[in-house]
Write a structure and sequence with these properties.
The chain has four helices and no strands. The chain is mainly α and 146 residues long.
C-alpha cells in the first residue's frame, strides 16, 4: 500500500514537472507557476510562495540525494566489474545503493506531503485530476503521431 502511494506521488510530481517545463514558460518543475494549472487550482499568492519555499528546500535536498544515488551506483558497478568478485561486498554495496534510493524517494514523497498540506484535500484531489487529464492528453498526442 505504502509503495503504491510512493509510486503515485512520484508519478504526479514527474508528470506535473514535465507539463510545467513544456508550457509557455520555463517553470523548471514548478507546476503551480504554470498559468493554466495555477488558475485551475485557484492558488493564492501566499500559497504560491509556500509552494516555492517548499520546492526550493526539497529541490536542494533531492539534488544532494540524487548525487548520492549516483555515487552508490558507481561504486556498485566498480565492484561488479572487478576481476576478483566479492559477492558479500557487492551485496553490501547494493544495500547502500537501495538505502540512498529510498532516501531520495522519501524526499520526493515529503515534498508531495507538503503540497497536500498547502493545497488541502479538495484542491489536492483536483491536482490529481489535472495530472490524469494531462496524462491522457499526452497519450492521445503520442498516439496521433503514429
Amino acid at each position: 500500500m505504502f509503495n503504491s502511494l510512493r509510486l503515485m506521488a512520484l508519478a504526479i510530481l514527474a508528470g506535473l514537472a514535465a507539463t510545467a517545463t513544456h508550457a509557455d514558460g520555463d517553470y523548471r518543475g514548478r507546476w503551480w507557476r504554470t498559468p493554466a494549472v495555477a488558475e485551475q487550482m485557484q492558488l493564492s499568492e501566499a500559497e504560491i510562495r509556500q509552494l516555492d519555499n517548499a520546492f526550493e528546500a526539497a529541490r536542494i535536498r533531492m539534488i544532494e540525494l540524487k548525487g548520492q544515488v549516483e555515487v552508490e551506483q558507481g561504486k556498485l558497478r566498480a565492484l561488479m566489474e572487478q576481476t576478483d568478485f566479492n559477492e558479500a561486498a557487492v551485496w553490501e554495496q547494493h544495500r547502500r545503493q537501495e538505502a540512498a534510493r529510498t532516501q531520495l524517494a522519501d524526499a520526493r514523497f515529503g515534498f508531495l506531503l507538503q503540497v497536500r498540506k498547502i493545497t488541502g484535500h479538495n484542491r489536492f484531489i483536483k491536482l490529481l485530476d489535472i495530472r490524469e487529464e494531462q496524462k491522457k492528453k499526452r497519450y492521445k498526442e503520442k498516439k496521433e503521431e503514429f
